[in-house]
């Protein structure tokens, strides 16, 4: 074994942290556990039979290209399909504005590589997507958290005064991971006004945008911008299948050119085979119907969970009511610690993810993220009953320790 690896690893590697979620997922995959911990799509919604057919078709008719290296920018046909979908939203973008990536995690990595030097600042939401925070940390960037868009201007002014002007603002505007909340039109306009005023790009991470169960869609930041300040990250993971590892980056051509060069050194190209299959899925006119099926199923699962929360949660616990996406966020009374709850919940065979891990400032100790897409409706309901029992037990234990913790209201995370 090589001695003293830490001294050999780069400073970037030494600043990388293992994801507690990945660690937790190992425990939560034990049989009998109702796991609200992962962010996984429901596998019964994967269009397996039709994918078998299309896969055979691609191999029969196009294997020389499908199994070959491809362009770093991605398959032109798939990019055109995405551009046509954007056109329907009123976004006029061209091929020079879009590349295919190995899903949005790679897009986050690419954006971090091309913008961040060690010590740079990134503004992100409190809470925000953990693996993005990990990517920023791996680049040795400093996160600056905002709880609300209304805090953005003061935060930017303060950072600029401290000579820490952020390189970009990282936002998940639609059905956020982990909170499930959505930025209002006013909040989007405010964020854009500030981005323009201070000349700071906004990275709009939008994996859940199309998973809307109700309400009217709010224009995306990219759509509202029109000045090249917004970089949008899209992915097929939650609206088709995550296993293909396909996503895209939509941005000003100068950013796309740099991103393409960065991608060359990461993986040369995203899997051509997967891109061809995905494009054919669209060509056969199956994509939108399949997406509606996913939305319908997740709406029902969300409803079952919200209903169970309303019926079983003790007083003092609050939660968000997402209009789409995969998650909701639960806040315990502030005297309670979600870490302690985690242990009690495991005894009841139910698991979740600690909200604290999504807070770049270490706050959120009384919060938890709950996924509603992976388990069945019945499991969602049963899991909430078990979680409510665990919370009641924790409340009694906290009370016995003299910390109080009975029935106090906490601020809802709803925006
Ligand atoms: C906000 C956000 N961004 C990016 C990703 C990464 O997804 P993928 O790499 O599968 O596209 C996720 C996954 O859960 C996410 O929640």
Structure in words:
There is one protein chain. It is built from 15 helices and 13 strands. The chain has helices at residues 5-8, 11-14, 20-28, 48-66, 76-88, 103-115, 130-138, 152-161, 185-198, 221-225, 253-267, 272-283, 287-312, 338-347, 377-400; strands spanning 34-35, 98-101, 121-125, 142-146, 168-171, 202-205, 230-235, 247-250, 318-319, 327-331, 350-351, 353-354, 367-371. It has a 7-stranded mixed beta sheet with strand order 2-8-7-6-5-3-4, sandwiched between helices. Strand 3 (121-125), helix 7 and strand 4 form a beta-alpha-beta unit. It is globular and about 65 Å long. The model is unreliable at 403-415 (pLDDT under 50). Residues 39, 103-105, 129, 172, 177, 205, 207, 235, 237, 242, 247 line the site of pyridoxal-5'-phosphate (PLP).
